[in-house]
Amino acid sequence: MKFKVWLGIVAGILPLVLVAIVLFLALYSWPAMHFNGPGFVVRDVWNLGNLYADPITVHGTQIQPGASYGILFLIVGTLSSTLIALLLAVPVGVGAAIFLAEAVPDHLRIWISFFVELLMAIPSVVFGLWGYVVVIPFLGRHLFPLLARTIGAVIPFFAGPTGSGYGLLTAGVVLSLMIVPIIAATLRDALVNQPTSMREAALALGATRFEALWRVTLPGARKTLIGATFLALGRALGETMAVLMVSGNALNYLPHNLYDPISTMAAFIVSQLDSALQDPTGLAVRSLAEIALVLSIISILVNAMARLILVVWGNVQRTMAV
Amino acid sequence: MQHSASLFPRGISPSRRILSAAGWTIAGSCLLVLSVMMVWILAVVFVRGVGALNLSLFTTVTQGTGGGLLNAIEGTFVLSAGALLLSVPLGVASGIYVSEYRFSRWAGVISFLADVLVGVPSIVVGYFGYVALVEWGGWNFSVAAGAIALAIICLPYICRTTELALRQVSNDLRDAAYSLGATDRRVILGVCLPAALPTILTGVLLALAVSVGETAPLLYTAGWSNYMWDGHLTHSPIGYLTYAIWTFINEPFASANALAYAAAFLVTAFVLVINILARFVLERRAAR
Questions:
Q1: What does the pLDDT profile of chain B (288 residues) look like in tens digits?
Q2: How many Cβ pairs within 8 Å bridge chains A and B?
Q3: B9: chain A residues, CB-CB within 8 Å
Q4: CB–CB of A8 and B164 under 8 A?
Q5: For tag attachment on chain B, is the N or C end more exposed, with fewer CB atoms within 10 Å?
Q6: Which residues between 124 and 163 in chain A have a beta carbon less than 8 angstroms from any beta carbon of chain B?
Q7: Long-range interactions of A273-281: CB distance < 8 A, separation 24+
Q8: Residue B41 and residue B32: Cα distance in Å, rounded?
Q9: 3-state secondary structure of B229
């Protein structure tokens, strides 16, 4: 009994860490929350104020004159880049999972899956390097002008100016590549583990193999697909380095088309800490902590949702990879 | 599960045949796109990285926008070793509890929260480290703050791999040990843990790969230094490879870019080798 109790106490450090993260960020950002109010999430301005003036006191908080903090542009940037990433990653992930589970022979499947899923192991900053060095020039010079000329003639959001290649669509494309293996790997497992009897029944009724897959096997794995999409969503929302290197790091700017620069909550924390430290009242650093708090709560909710969907609703076995 | 039925069946109406063929073609091209992207990334990193490699990278420290990577290589090892030192005992203990007492409510809570903690963005962990350790704790940019931030990233991975490894251990083994009169402690530490050890070690290796590839948790905890580590745990910043990738690729100098490519090659090669090794171990154990 004693062994179990000791082990339980040591194991309690893990939940404690999660609580500590949220608690510390909340306590540290408290003065910022007090000053910024709920308008923090709907204001489209991040302004440290006049750093050369003496601090003034507003509602009991010391600030630099003119300071105002709002993160609407970050919320828009985060949600839009994540949405683009999901729109690209879900179909490609489903397609790859289908092909791996149904069309690739057993002895090849584990190795091809492994190769594709190695994408999950590539560090974020290496994706950023690749995006910065090859994807930005490629998209900026070739694909974006083409998109703007063709689809842009019909849908205004696709129209130019196409800029230099840094921006919303580039961030979405790089993000999509980082999350697609989550969807492909989880769904492939679910497809392979579907009961054979249903599939064989469909084939016996005269369905082609694609029809059996599309009408029987794939619908059987829909809970897994929804859960994996939530997992991918959580990853995309919090991705930092790759987005930082390809998004253009917009400040106080809402994107007007697909090619405009954006910034996300995660990337903004990295790009702004140095300048936030210039604020002698410390309010800027605390407002960054408020962003981190918002981001942590969103990702905790999304990931909790994903796990509930997968484990409780979908009864999916957990694996080492995802 | 493979079927004898053909992917492209005959003897059915043309519309159904076309639909089937189109379906497989689209699915196959999705897989092809992913493979091409993977090859493309590896090609960029390996071709440019190998081109930037030379012996002085491993013998000299960074100077301004040139020099070597010795300080960063050392820093990456120090930080990852520190992170594992902290997270392996805690993670393995948590994993044991979650697996062996899986019917207790506390185990369910921990298992669930470990999965949630995996999903907390690494920059949030980094900023927490900055607020709690660098600022509030007064440690400044330091090895200790960086290693703790990395340990928080590794902890849930190790907990989960330990749990999954122990779950693969047959219950017959546990029953046999209990029927011989062994206590919980003897059964877990003497029987289950040795049986699961190779898989647990594989999980630790994978956590090492994750920690070597992380950047965001370290930016504002470990800082950066052009010099070798002076041995102090607090109050002295340290370099690491992923920082070199991020900073030096943005510099307008060829010497700086070469450092970034070399660092990217070293990190990616290390991560890939660990993942490939881990896969072989796991496949072999699954096949048994």
A1: 445 567 777 778 888 888 889 999 999 999 999 999 999 999 999 999 999 999 888 988 988 888 889 999 999 999 999 999 999 999 999 999 999 998 899 999 999 999 999 999 999 999 999 999 998 999 999 999 999 999 999 999 999 999 999 998 999 999 999 999 888 889 999 999 999 999 999 999 999 999 999 999 999 999 999 889 888 888 899 999 999 999 999 888 988 999 999 999 999 999 999 999 998 888 887 776
A2: 289
A3: 208-209
A4: no
A5: C
A6: 124-130, 132-134
A7: A273/B130, A273/B219, A273/B220, A275/A48, A276/A48, A278/A48, A278/A51, A279/A48, A279/A49, A279/A51, A279/A64, A279/A67, A280/A51, A280/A55, A280/A64, A281/A55, A281/A62, A281/A63, A281/A64, A281/A67
A8: 14
A9: coil
Residue type at B84 in one-letter notation = L
Sign of CA dihedral A57, A63, A64, A69: negative
Query: What pTM does this model have?
Result: 0.93
- The answer to whether B86 touches B151, Cβ cutoff 8 Å, is yes
Rg (CA), chain B: 24
Q: How many residues does chain B have?
A: 288
Q: ipTM of this model?
A: 0.93
